[in-house]
């Protein structure tokens, strides 16, 4: 007689972490111990990796290096200086259905801040905070070797998610910053990174300021029926 499958509680530890994690864009001025950051990164590296290649690097940007990078990025943003990105994230052209999700996410963010749809200056100032790593105590730049195939981005993405969940488990918050990928040459020049490193994203990490209105932003996920099918 086959034993019935023993199911985990309705909400296990992983599910609780996944549901609690959200993009945080305002942090407390409380430093993150270096030993804790190293522990989080070591845990994140346990993510699955094809052939155990473990692609990608994390650069903690501090002190003068951070000031230099932030200043260069903010100036480029204000001057509307375009750069060729190292990789394409968004589909071009953007399909209508995906465009609706993008608009909904923006509405959730600026709605939490009370920034009106027609307030271009207010939106630009908020977007510029991406380039300041939202003033988080930890600012990470994430890169990947240019000669990796597309699968390397998949592995690195799993590692990034592992990092954010590991941080959540320690009471920390995070926000991935795709905007950094818009200025790869500036990032490499400001930090002295080799041309062989493609800029993937930034990551802000620290203790959440729970009182900040921006951190009330929430986005909805697609229902299961939209992305899961059973084929028989």
Keywords:
232 residues; NADH Oxidase; flavoprotein; oxidoreductase
Strand arrangement across the biggest beta sheet: 1-2-4-3
In the CATH hierarchy, the architecture is: 3-Layer(aba) Sandwich
Mean pLDDT: 94
- The CATH superfamily turns out to be NADH Oxidase
Structural class: alpha+beta
Beta-strand level of the residues, as a percent range?
Answer: 5-15%
In total, how many domains does the architecture comprise? 1
* Order of SSEs: HHEHHHEHEHEH
Q: Counting H and I runs of at least 4 residues, what is the number of helices?
A: 8
Judging from the principal axes of the Cα atoms, what is the shape?
globular
Q: Write down the CATH class.
A: Alpha Beta
| Backbone CA Rg | 19 Å
Q: How many β-strand stretches?
A: 4
CATH fold name: NADH Oxidase
The low-confidence runs, each spanning 5 or more residues with pLDDT under 50, are none
N-end to C-end Cα span: 26 Å
DSSP helix fraction: 40-55%
Family: Belongs to the nitroreductase family.
Cofactor: FMN
Organism: Diaphorobacter limosus
Keywords: Flavoprotein, FMN, Oxidoreductase
Description:
The chain is α+β, with helices and mostly antiparallel strands and 232 residues long. It has one domain (24-213): NADH Oxidase, CATH 3.40.109. Helices cover 41% and strands 12% of the residues. The protein has helices at 13-20, 34-44, 63-78, 96-113, 120-128, 150-169, 184-191, 224-227; strands spanning 57-60, 138-145, 173-177, 197-206. The chain has a four-stranded antiparallel sheet with strand order 1-2-4-3, sandwiched between helices. The protein is globular and about 65 Å long. The mean pLDDT is 94.
């Amino acid at each position: 007689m086959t034993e019935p499958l023993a199911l985990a509680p309705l909400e296990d530890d992983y599910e609780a972490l996944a549901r609690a994690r959200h993009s945080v864009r305002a942090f407390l001025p409380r430093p993150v111990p270096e030993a804790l950051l190293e522990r989080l990164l070591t845990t994140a590296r346990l993510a699955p990796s094809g052939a155990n290649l473990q692609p990608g690097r994390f650069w903690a940007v501090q002190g003068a290096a951070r000031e230099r990078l932030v200043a260069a990025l903010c100036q480029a943003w204000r001057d509307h200086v375009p750069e060729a990105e190292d990789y394409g994230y968004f589909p071009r052209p953007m399909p209508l259905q995906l465009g609706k999700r993008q608009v909904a996410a923006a509405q959730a963010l600026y709605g939490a801040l009370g920034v009106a749809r027609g307030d271009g200056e207010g939106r630009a100032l908020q977007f510029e905070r991406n380039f300041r790593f939202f003033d988080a105590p930890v600012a990470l730049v994430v890169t990947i070797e240019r000669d990796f195939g597309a699968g390397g981005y998949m592995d690195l993405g799993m590692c990034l998610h592992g990092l954010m969940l590991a941080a959540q488990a320690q009471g920390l918050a995070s926000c991935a910053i795709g905007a950094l990928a818009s200025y790869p040459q500036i990032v490499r020049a400001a930090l002295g990174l080799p041309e062989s490193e493609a800029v993937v994203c930034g990551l802000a990490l620290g203790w959440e300021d729970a009182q900040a209105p921006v951190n009330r932003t929430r986005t909805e996920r697609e229902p299961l029926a939209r992305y899961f099918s059973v084929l028989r």
